[in-house]
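pasting for ref. prot 1 ->
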Amino acid sequence: MRQSSDRTCLHCKQAIRILTLTAFFTFSAAAFCSTPASSPAGGLDSAAVAVHNRGVGLMGQFDYEAARREFSALAQQHPDNDDIQVNLAIATFNRQTKGDEDLALSILAGVFKHNPEHLRALYCTGLLELRVGRPAEAAEYFRKVIALDPRDAEAAYFLGQCLMQLSRYEEALGWFRKSIEGDQLLRSAYYNVFMALQRLNRRDEAAATLKDFNRLKEDPRARLLEFKYRNMGRKAEVTAVGVDAVQPVPKPAGPVFGAAIPLGKALESVAWTDAGQVSFIPVHMSVVDLNGDGHPDIFIAGAIQTSDGTVNAILVSGSDGAEYTLRMDHPLSRLRNVNAALWGDYDNDGLTDVYFCRQGPNQLWRQVSRDQWRDVTDETGTAGGSLNTVDGAFFDADHDGDLDFFLVNADGPNEFLNNNRDGTFRPLAAERGLGGSGSHRSVVVADLDGDRDLDLIVINRKPPHEVYVNDLFWEYHKAQGWEAFQAADVQAAVAADVDSDGRTEVYSIDSAGTITRWQREPDNTWGGTPLNRGLETEAFRVTGSVRMAVADLDGDGILDLVVSHSSGWWAASMGSKGLTPLFEHRGGEGAGLDAWTLLSSVNGPHLVAWSRGRPPYEWPPGAGRYPFVTLALSGMEEKGASLRSNSSGIGARIAVRTGSRWIVLNTLRNDSGPGQSLQPLPAGLAGAGKIDFAAIDWPDGVYQTELDLQAGMFHRITETQRQLSSCPVLFAWDGTAFRFVTDLLGVGGLGYALGPRKYAEPRPWEHLMLPGGILKPDEGRLIFKLTEPMEEITYLDAVSLAAYDLPPGWSLTLDERMATGEPEPDGSPVFYRSFVLPAKAENGLHQDVTAAVSTRDLTAAPPGEIDRRFIGRLEQDHVLTLTFSEPLDSRAGRPVLIADGWVEYPYSQTNFAAWQAGADYRAPTIEARGADGHWHRILDRFGYPAGMPRQMSVPLPGLPEATRELRIVTNQEIYWDRLGIAFAEDCPLVARRELPLVAARLDEIGFPARTDGPQRLPGYNYERRRPRWDTHFMEGYYTRIGPVEELLKARDDALVVFGPGDGVTLEFGEGLGPPETGWTRVYVLEAHGWCKDMDLYTGNGDTVEPMPHSGGKSADRDILHETYNTRYQSGRE
C-alpha cells in the first residue's frame, strides 16, 4: 500500500494500487545485445501504429489476451507484416490456454513462408519446440538463430538447454559457456554449467562454477532465462514502434549543497553549551518525527546549558517544515548523560518510541499517545546495567516482527536485549557469545552473507574488531574470512551497497584518513581497497575524530560518501577508481562539527549540524542535483491487524529501478553513529521523472513492488499483509468453470518450525471429501487443477480419485484432520445414518451461537479477540459449549464429532516469536459432562481442520454415561462453521470405485486472484489470474512444463515439483454412469506429497533440495527426476 505527497508529510492521499513487478531481472548487458528486431512500422498508418503500441503496452502489463486481440486485428489487416505476426504469436503462447502453443507455431510457420530467416520467428519457434518437449527440433532453430546472430547469448543458452535434455552434456557445456561470454550477468547459464559439469563428473570444476553462481545470487542486475514473458530473451518480446533512444539528462549546474544557514531565528538566543567534549564518541544528533505531524524534528544530546547542567535539545519543525523551535518543556529534554538515542516502535502500536544509551542505566521511553511519553525502563527490563553505553542499534535481530536492541558498552561487555513481545526484554549477549572483549566504540548492522538476516560488526577502539553472523534462533557465530578487517585501524564504519550488485560492502576510515572499501571476495574472504590513498588533493585530508555516512547527495542514483573531522567535512562520489570530490567545508583546525546528521527531504539530503557554543545550522540541498523521491516504509497496514514486520520498517531492503539504472537502499542506519534516526529514504532519479518500480524485501521475507513513484514527492509505503504460504490450492470443474474447493496437503508441510530447531513431523498424505455437487464431467472426464498461488513449493507424488456410492439414508465423512494429538487419523471413510446438531451452543461469554454452528454456510462462530502479536492466536481461550437434546449414548453407533471450518495458520517465524514470549498455541481439547455433572477430558489437543474450509472428524471414545454436553476449548484462531455428532456404523452395501488418472499436465497457469471475506474466509478465483506476482522462488530444479502423469500414477517418491504460478491439471476418466435411484455419490480425492514455504525459519526454506521421500523409492525415481525435473528457478518473480 502506498501514499504520496508533494511535501514531507505523513498524512497523505491514497496513491495508485500495487501492481506486479514488470522487469526486475530482464535487462540485457549492453555489451552483448542481440540484433534489434525490425520495426513493424512500415506500411502502417498512425492509427495502426497506435493500436500496435497499445498491444505492446498491454503485454508490459501481462494482459496477454487483450494484447492478442490488438495484434490479431492488425495481423488480419496486414497479413504480410511478419513482425506483427510474430508479436501475435508471442501474445498467443504467453496467454497459456489450451492449444496456444500449437496455434503460435502455426502463426510462426506462416512467417517462414515469407521470410525463412526471420530471427524472432526462428527464436520463438525454438522456444516453443523446447517447451512442448521436442528438444532436437528446438536445437535446430536455435542453431539457425546463432548462425544469423552469433552474439545472441540467449539463443546460446537455450541451445545448451536442448542439448542437456538430449544428454549431450559436453556440447551443452560449451554453449552455456558461450552464453556467459556474451552476458556475464546471465545467472541461469552459470547454474547450467555447474549441472553439466556434475553430469560429466567434473566435480572440482563444478564447485568453482557454483561459487560464480552464488556470487550473482544477490545481484539485482543478474537475470534468469525461463519460460515467462520478459524472461525468455529479447527476441521473445514484442517490439514497439518509433521508440527513440533515451538520451542522458544533463546534471543540473551548481553546488550539491547550498551555503550554511541557521535552523531558526528563535534558536539564536538559546544558551548552547560550549563545554569541552568529555568522551571519545561524537555528540549525538538524530532526526525523527517526534510529534507525528509529518515533519522531521531533531534531537541533540546534551546541547543546552542550564543552571543545573546540560540538557538535550528538542528542535521541533514548524508547520512549513523549515523554521525550528526549541521545546525545553519536552519530557525527553531533561534526561542527563545521554550518549545516543535509538528511535523506533518497539511495541508495534504505530507510535515511535526511543531508547537512550547513557552513561549509567539506559532508559526506554514509550510514546503512549501522540507526543505523550512515559519511562518504561523498569517494567520492560531494559536498563542494561550501569555501564557507559556509547552506541546501539534498534533492529529486528531475529526477524520475528518486533525490534530488538544491541547495545555497545565502552567499559564492559556489550548487551543484546531481545524483545519478548509481551512488554519485556530478555538479555542474551552473555548466553549467545555477543558480549565481546574489547573497549567498544560502535556497531554496524547489515546482511553480510546475503542470507536475508542481519549480522553484526562491532568496532572497537583498538583492533581486533568483532564480526558476528546471524544464524537465527538467537544463534550467532564468529565470522570467518574477516581477519584483515578485524586487524585494521577502523575509527568509523558504515555498510552500504554502493555498486548496487546486491552484495553489501563496508566502508571504513582509519586514523590517517584513509577510506577503505571492504568487499566479499570469491573465496568468501573480505578484502579492503583504499579509495583515497595516493590522491593528492586537499579535499580528502582529515584531522582529529571522524564520522562518516553514505547517501545519494546529487540525485544520480549512486550512493556518495560524507566524512567529518575536526576541521570541517567533505563529500565525494565513490567510483571503481576511487573518490571524486562533490563538496567541501573547511573551517580551520578546531572548527569542525561537534554533531551532525543527514536529514531527508523531497530534494534529497540536508546536512544538519551543531558546533559548541552556537545555534544549529544546515547546509540545504543545492542547485546541482537531480530530482529525488522520498520513501517512508512501515510494516503496519492498519492498526489492530496482525503484523509480520516491525511497524517502523527498519531492516527493509529496496532495489529502485529507473530506466536502466539500479540503486539499492535499506532502512538501517546509514552513518557511523552514535545512535539511530528514523526518517524517510531519499532516492535520486538521475533526471528521470519517476521511479519505474521499487522492489522491497521486508524483514519478514515478504517481497513487494511499487510502480511509478513520481519525482519530487513523498511516498509512504506499507507492507502488503497477504498470505505468503499455506499449501497448494485446489479447483474443480463444476460444469461451467473451475471453482475453488480448498487447499490440500497442508498436513505435509516440510520444515515447519514449532520453536528453536524443532520442526513438525509432516504427514505426506491427505484425503479430501469433495463438497456435493461441485464436480461435473467435461467430455467424460472429471478435472481438477492443483495450483500454487503463493510463495511455496509442492512435491506431488501421487493423486487418485475414489467414488463412493452410498445407499439411501447413508452419509460419509472421513477420519481426517490436522492431528496434534491422539488419536491419529487414517483417512478412512466413516459411514453414518444418524447425525444430530446441538440444540444449543454457547461461547465462553455466555453468548448464544447456535445458529452459527448449525449450518454449513461459511459463517462461523466468532472466535473472540485476536492476539495481534501472533498470527493465528487468540487473546483468550475460545470456549464452545454444545448442548444436545438427548444423551449421546441413546443412539446406535459410535459417536464422532464432525466439524466444518477453517483455521488461520501461523508461520514458522510466528511460532518462534510466540515461543520466545512464552505464548503457546493450544489446539482444541474436548471435554464432556455426563450424568454425574462433572466435566471429563475426552481428547487433549487433538487437532483441527487442516487449512481452508473443509470437513474434519474425530471419534469420541469413552464418553461419560448420558453425556448431553460437550465443550471445545482452544486459543487457536479456528472458525467453527458447523458442529455436530454422527453415529458411525459399518455400511456393507457401499460401493467404492477408483477412477483412472488419464492425463496430468503441469503448466505455468499464473496466480488466481485471492479474496478475503469476513472471519478471514479465503477464496480464490481461477478465472481472474495474474500472470505474475511479487514472489520468490526456492532455488533448484522444478518439473518441466508438460505431461506429468508418469510421475503421479503411483506412490513411488517420483515427484512433480512445482512452485509459485504453476498448476497441475488432473483429468480422471468418469465412465461410471449415474448412481442408482436414491443412492448418493461422494468423491474423495486422495493425494500423496509434501509442501514447503520460504519463511526464514522454515527448515531448508531457500532450496528445492533436499527432495522428500517416504521410503517408497522406486528403482526408476532418479531417472524420472533427471528426465522431468529440468526447469531451474531461483530469485524473484
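and prot 2 ->
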Amino acid sequence: MRRRLAAVLVAAAVFAAACGGETDDDGSPTATPAAVTEDSPTTAAAPQPAPTTTTAAPAEAGTVAATDAEPTSPPPESTPEPAGTPAATPEDDVAAHPSDAYFALDHVLDISIEIAVEDWDTLRHQTRTFGDLLAEIEKYGLSQPFASIYTWFGATVTVDGETHADVGVRKKGFIGSQSDTKPSLKLRFDKYVDGQSLGGVMERMTLNNGIQDPSMVNTCLSYRVFAAAGNPTPRCNFATVSVNGRNLGLYVHVEEFKAPFLARHFESTEGNLYEGTVSDFTPDYRGTIEKKTNEDAADWSDIDAVVAALQDPSPAGLQALGEIVDLDRFLSFWATEVLVGHWDGYAGDRNNYWFYREPDGPFVFLPWGTDDTFHLRDDPNPFDNISNPPPSVLALTAIPNRLYNTPDWRITYVDRLKQILEVVWDEEELLAAVDEMAAIVQRHALPEAREAAAADAERVRKFILKRRGEILADLTPRPPEWPEPEGDVLPGAGLSGSLEVSFETTWGSNESPNPPQEGSVISLLLDGSSEPVEGLIVTAGDATPAEAVLLPGIAEIASIVVVKVEDDGSLNGMVLAVALDELAAGATLVIGVDTIAGGIFSIPPGAAAPDTFSSFSDGTLELSSAGTAPGTSVAGSFSGSYGDSPPPAVGDGEGAAPGTTAGDVGLVINEVAAKGDPMDWFELHNTSPDPIALEGFEVADDLGDAGKRVAFPAGTVIQPGAYLQFRTDKDGWPGFALGGDEELGIWLLDGTPVDRVDWEEGQSPEGRSYARLPDATGDFRTVDDPTPGAANQPSAAATTTAPTTESAGMGDSLYPLLGNEGYDVLHYDIDLDVDPATNTISALTTITARATQDMSAFNLDLSGLEVHDVTVDGVTAGFSRAGSELTVRPEAALAEGEEFSVSVGYSGSPEPIDDPGAPFGPLGWLSQDGVIYTLNQPSGAMTWFPSNNHPADKATFELRITVPDSATAAATGLLIDETTAGAHTTTTWRMDDLMATYLAAVYIGDFERIEHGRLRPDGPLLRDYIPGDAPPEVAEALAVTADAVRFLEELLGPYPFDAYGTLVLPIPIELALENQTLSVHGRDFLDPFIIAHEAAHQWLGNSVALEDWGDIWLNEGFATYLHLMFEAEHHGADFDAGMQQLHAQLPSFAGTPPKGITLEELFGPSVYLRGAMTLHALRLHAGDETFFAILRTHYERSAGDSTNTEEFLGIVDEFAGSEAVALVESWLYDEAVPDLPEPQP
C-alpha cells in the first residue's frame, strides 16, 4: 500500500510536468554517420570544434576559455555575446541542405496517410493514463525513463504528391498532447523498407497536433527566437494531414534530434544525446534521463559527473560543472527559455529538453516541446510551489538554481538575458512573424479552429509587446530572489493532529489522464487552521490490492486519495479506504463504526515508499454525492484525528471538563448572518452529549486581537443537540459587531481556540446567511433560507457557491476592494434612458468578458440604483447586493478562458459617493443647475453603470443615451448615430480603443457642439461642447487645444484616439478631468496650461493607464511636466529657470515623496509637482535625447494597456543606466527633496 501511495504522489508530479509538453518517447535512435542519413548535408560547413577545456567562468563570445586556475565564478566584467561559443552555431550559419525545402515556413506540406481502418483505430486510441503512470512509478519509482507505449503500423504516405508504401506511422506524446481524434504522429519512411526516404533526403517526420496551442504559432516562433540567440534548434513549419481521406487539420512539423540534426550543428555525431522528461541532475531525478545514442554502452559517467558537481557545494563543484557543461551556451539556452516563457522546459519544470555532448566535449542544451510558450502562468505547475514566478528568471532545476544563487553568476545571467533581449527580441520582426504564421493557420486550419487561433494569436502579440518591459521592470532595482518552496501542505506523518478536508472529484479519476480536471480540494484545515489548497489533487476509484490492506477481509473497496508533491520531491497525502457497498450519496461513515479506514503519510525525496504512516484514530466521512459509474461525482468532507497520542489538552476552562481537548468540547459555530434583520446574529450548536455552560468561553469578531474577546452572558447554557441564536445588538455586546467582510471565533478562557469562521463580502448578504452544510460538520456556504435556532437544511443552499476570495477587489494599494478579479472585461454596451427633470435613469448594461479563472460567481461594482434582473449569456442569473458589490451567480459555472456576457437591468436616481481620495467633492453621476455630468475619477463610475471599476481592466465601449429633445447629450468616444423618435433623441457613442471605466463620461444639458475638423487628414477629429449661453471668451480659450495636441505629438507620437475636445460645464467649479477623447472643465478653469495638462493625459493616463492607483504620479507628474513645457513655450518663458524656482519652493508645499502616498494624498501637490520635478531631474541627468527617448518608449510600450512604476524604472535603466534609476527612486521615495543634478552638456 505504501508503494502505491508513493506512486500516486510521484505520478501527480509527473503529470503536472509532462502534461504541457510535446515530450517524445520514441525508441532510442542509432547515431549513424552523417554521410548516409536523411538530412545530413553533402557539403556542410564544418562547425568550429568545441573547447576541450572549460572553466566555471563563461567565455567571451567567440573565444575558448582555458586556464590552469580554478575560478569559481565568472568575472563581473565579462559580457559574452548571446550567440554563445562557436560550436553553438546560429541557425543562419548552418549550411543549406535539400531538406530545407521541407521546413520552409511558406511551404505548407500536404500529407495524406492511407492506413488500415482497424490499425488507425488502434493507433489513435493508444493512450497513457494517469493509472498507467501510477503502475509504472509504483514498480520503478523514478529509477528509469518512462516506457514507450506506442506501436508502429504500416501505411502508404503521400507528401506533396510523392507517394511511398510501407511507411511506419505511430502516435506520439506523453500526456497533455494526447488525442484520439487528432493524434500527434511520427512517420518513418525507412521503418520497413531500408533506404526509403522522402525526396531522397528525409527518413523521418514529426507532426505535432498543437492542441495545447490554439494559435498554432508558439512552437515555430519560439524556435526562431532560440535559433537567433545562438542555440542549436530544430527547424519547424506546418503541414496539413489527412488520414483515409479525412482531413485532420493543420499540424506543426518539427525536425527531430537525430544524427542529421547533430551533423548540422556539431562537428561529431558520435557523442551522447539525452532527453529529459521529469528529469534533473539530482539523485532523485537522474534516473528518468533517457539516453538516445550509444545506448548499448552502459556508460553514464558524464551524467554522473554533472550530478556529482552539483552535489558539491564548494567552489570546486562549480569548477567541475564548468568542465562537463558548456555554461556559456547554457546561459543563452536558459535566458531564452525565460524570455519566451517556456515554463514547461528545463529551468522551469524539469521537462521538455535534450542535451548533447560530443566525445570529450561539454554538454550543450537543446530546446524542445515549446508549444506552451509566450505566456507565463500565475501558477504554471501547481506541484512545484512556485506560484507567480518572476518574469526574469526560472530556476527550479539544479543547474540554473546553483548558478542563480551564486552572486557573480546571477550577474552574468542577467547580463546575458539583457543582451538577448536587446539583440534578439525585435518586437517589429516578431510581430511580423506572428502575422505570417497566423495567416498560414487561417488559410489551412479547419474552419472550426480558426476563430480560436486568431484570438489566441493576440495573446502572443501581447506577450511580445509587453515582454521587454516586464522583464526589465522585474530586474529593477535588482534581480528578484528565486522563491523558496513553501512548507508541506499536508502534515508530516508520524505526528499527531487533526485534519478537515472538503473535496469533489469523479469516480475513476485515479485512472484519468488528467486528474486535476476531474476535481479539486475545496478547503483544508490542519489543527483548526485554514491552509491553501492550490496544487492538491483528489482522486477516487477502485482500490488497488495495496490499498485494500487497510480493510482486510473486504472484497470490494473504494479509495479516496488526496496528494501533494513539494518542490524538493517530498510527497504528502491522505488515503481513505471505504467498503464499496457503503459508498453512497448522503452516507455518513465513521471510523471505528463503519467499514472505513485510512491515514496520512509522508515520503522523503526520491523514496519509493512512505517513511512513516499515521492512521486515523477517529474520523467521519460525509458524502454529498457518490457513485461507481465512470465520471460520477464523488464529493463530500472528511474530518479526523491521526497519530498515536491525542492533541494537547486545552486546559481547565469552566465550560469543559479538565483535560478535554478543543475537539472534545462539542461547541461549533453553525451559522452567521452578517446582514441580519433587524440585527446581525450567529448560532452555536452543541454536538456533545452534555450541557455546555458558555461562561467558560469567549467570543470575538477579530481572530487576531485577544483584547476584543468578550464573555457570553452569565448563566447561559446550551443543551445537548441544541441550537442557540445570539443577536449582536450593541447594548448587549459592546464593541462587537458583524460586517460584510468579517470573522468570528470562540475560545476557552485560557485562550484555547474552539471554533472559527471568516467570510468575504457577499458571502453573507442581506436576506441570506453563511451556514455549515452538512449541518454542524460541513464547510460554510451561503444559504438562501437562514435557519436560526434550528438545523441547517441542504435545500437552503444557494444555487451556486459564493465567489472565490479573489473575486472582490484587485489588491490595489490604495483601493484594495475596487475592481474585481476572476475575469477580464472586453466590452461595455451601456443603454441609458435619462429623464433630466427628475434625474432618474432606466438602464441596461451588457458586459462582454473572459473568465480568467473557474467561477461559480463573480462580482461587479455598482453603487445604489435598483437592479431588476441579471442574465448571463441570456439565462437568468441569481444576484445579491452588498454595499457597492453586485454578486452574480450564473446558472452554469464559468470555466477559465470562457467568454461570456452579463446583462444588468437597473433604474433609479444615481447617488454620488464620497471618496476620501477625491477631496474636490462627491464623485459619480451629478446633477446641478439643470446639467447632468459625471466625474468618475477614481471610483465614481459605479454610481451609474455596473463595471469592473479599476483602470487595470480596460475595455471598449458603446453608449446609447436617450434624452428629451430639449436636451443635448455628449459622451466619450465618437458619435456614430443620432436618431429621433417622438420627443426623444438617442445618440450612440463608440470607443473602439480600450478605456478605463473612470474615463467613460456622460453629459446632458444645453450644449452647443462646435466642429473644428481634423487636426490633419489622418489625425483626430477636434470638437468641443460649450454651454449654449457661453460668452465668446469660452470658445476662444479652447482654441489653444490644437496647438497643445501638436506640441504633444512632437514629443510622444501621434494622438492615440479618433477624436478630442473639451466640454465646458456651465458651473463655476475649479476642476478639470481628462475623460478619454472629451476632457471636462469648469467654466472658470480654462487656462491654456490646464487644457494642455488634460490633453497630455490622453497619452499618459488614458492610452497608458495605471495598474495601481498608488502609481498616480505616472499620470499627474507626467502631465504636469508636459503642461509646464507647453506653458513655457506658449508664453516664451525660460523653462529651466522656472523649474529651478519651483524646486526651491517645493519643500514648503510638495515635499512628500510621490510614492507611498496615503489615500488622502492621491491628488495632492506632491503627486503633481514633485512628480514633474522627478522627470526634470531625470532629464538633467540623462540629457534631452535620452530623456525624450525614455518618455516616448514609456508611452509606446504600454499604449492601450496599463503600467506601473517598476516598468518605467526598467525603461530608465535600459536607456540611462542604474545611476539614473537610483536618481529617480530618490525623488519618488526619499522624504527630503533631493538636489537637482547638473545638466548634461
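Residues 374 and 463 are 6 Å apart (CA to CA).
DSSP finds 24 helices and 55 strands in the chain.
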